[in-house]
Each structure stands twice: as C-alpha cells, then as structure tokens.
Automatic annotation (TrEMBL):
Gene3D superfamilies: GntR ligand-binding domain-like, Winged helix-like DNA-binding domain superfamily/Winged helix DNA-binding domain. Residues 18-88 form the HTH gntR-type domain. This is HTH gntR-type domain-containing protein. Keywords: DNA-binding, Transcription, Transcription regulation. InterPro entries: GntR_C (IPR011711), TF_FadR/GntR_C (IPR008920), Tscrpt_reg_HTH_GntR (IPR000524), WH-like_DNA-bd_sf (IPR036388), WH_DNA-bd_sf (IPR036390). It comes from the Bacteria. It comes from Thermogemmatispora tikiterensis. SMART domains: FCD, HTH_GNTR. The keyword Transcription regulation applies. Pfam families: FCD (PF07729), GntR (PF00392). CDD domains: WHTH_GntR. One of its GO terms (molecular function) is DNA-binding transcription factor activity.
C-alpha cells in the first residue's frame, strides 16, 4: 500500500508555550526577514501552523493578524486564496505608513479627513473596476457584517474588512495602502461606541447601500453613499471625542 510523503515542517514546535501568539509572530517574522519565507510564498493554513508550533489556532490567528497589519503578510480571498508573504516594496511602504498612522500620532478629525479624501473615490473606482469574484467576496463580507452585529469584536473587524475590500477593488495600490494603514486606528476609535445599537444599525445600513451600489456598477452613487457613511461616523466620533 502506497504511503504519502510527509512534508517537512517550516517551524519547530514550541516546547513550553508562553504568550504563544507573540512567539509565533516572532518566528514567522524572523523567517520572513532571513529569507526562509520568500516574497509571494504562501504560508501553511492555520491548522497546519498550529500543529507545527504546537499551539492553539487562536494563537496562530492572532499572530497572522499582527503580521498582516504590519504589512509583512497579505491575505487574498477567493479561489487560490490564503496568506502570503508581502512583496518587499509593499512591506516597506506599508510599515512606514502604518507607523505614521498610529492612534497616538493623530486626532479623530485627521483620521476622518483622510478617509473622506480617499474612500469615496475608492468606492467609485470599485464600482468600475471590481471583478465578478471581488463582487462576490464583497457580498460575503456584508453577510458576515450582519451576522457579527451582536459580537462587538467580530463586528468591528467586519466593518474594517468591508472598507479595506472596497479599497482593494478600486485597483489602486495607494488607496489600498492608505486604507490598510488606517484600519487599526479606525477600529480603536469605533470601539468606544460600538456598544450603541443605533450606531451599528446605521453602519450596517450604510455599508449595505454602498455595497449594493458597487454591485450595480453605480459609480457616482457608490461615492456619494460612502461620503454620507463617513459623515455619519464623523457625527459620532467628533461629538464624543
């Protein structure tokens, strides 16, 4: 009977787990910096990484999210998707931009001004340039948004993912870079108010309408709806700040 050849693991298991996600994050970061993981290389899935590191999947998931926010990894959705090592140029630019967008370096008004400058145009371009696969992924994200409405942590991530997905669909690398850099500050600002049901209802309604305009290829409408959505967020963030 033929036996399947086992692949050699990329990482050593952690013998005595302590702050597991930090150890996993540091190990993957080191592998990227020393070239063990090359730009564009696909990482094993969460289950395989958890086995290699001898940790739970939640630790792997948190480590991958930290590295994604740092610009060292990129997540691609859909067919042949997964988690990949970011190209060097993207990594360097994103790391510098993300550092400049840390919450301590800005006021809510500055964050909103940047969003209002970039995201309405990104929504317009998304309505023009998005592929059918990207539109399908957007519909799925909007469904996840509704499903996570009663789980604050998941809900905030879903909101940020919809914004980032729209920027990606614009097929403009600068827009994507800027929105990705603003992702964490936006989540932290919204976290102060996410317990308010009326805010969640407003955000859900806004993003659903924006998504529908993009799906219908309504360029002008998508931009206007995004502008109104960001103004609704401004009404909350600036009044309460």
């Amino acid at each position: 009977m033929a036996t399947t050849e086992e692949k050699e693991p990329l990482f050593e298991p952690i013998a005595v787990p302590k702050r597991n996600f930090e150890i996993v994050e540091a190990s993957i970061r080191k592998a990227i910096y020393n070239g063990t993981l090359a730009p564009g290389q696909k990482l094993p899935n969460e289950f395989e990484l958890a086995q290699q590191f001898n940790v739970g999947r939640s630790a792997v998931r948190e480590a991958l999210k930290v590295l994604e926010l740092a610009g060292l990894l990129v997540v691609r959705r859909g067919y042949n998707g997964g988690t990949f090592v970011a190209p060097p140029s993207f990594e360097e630019a994103n790391e510098a931009t993300t550092l400049s967008f840390q919450p301590g370096n800005m006021q809510p008004q500055q964050l909103l001004d940047a969003c209002l400058t970039i995201e309405p145009r990104a929504a317009e371009l998304a309505a023009v340039h998005a592929s059918e696969l990207e539109l399908s992924d957007l519909s799925e994200l909007l469904q996840q948004l509704e499903q996570g409405a009663y789980l604050p942590a998941r809900y905030l991530t879903a909101v940020a993912d919809v914004h980032l997905s729209i920027a990606e669909m614009a097929h403009n690398a600068v827009f994507k870079l800027a929105v990705q850099a603003m992702r964490t500050p936006l989540i932290q600002e919204l976290n102060r108010f996410i317990g308010d049901q009326s805010l969640r209802q407003t955000v859900n309604r806004d993003l659903k309408m924006i998504g529908q305009a993009i799906l219908n290829r309504e360029e002008h409408q998508a931009g206007e709806l995004m502008r109104h959505h960001l103004q609704h967020l401004a009404d909350w963030l600036l009044v309460e700040s």
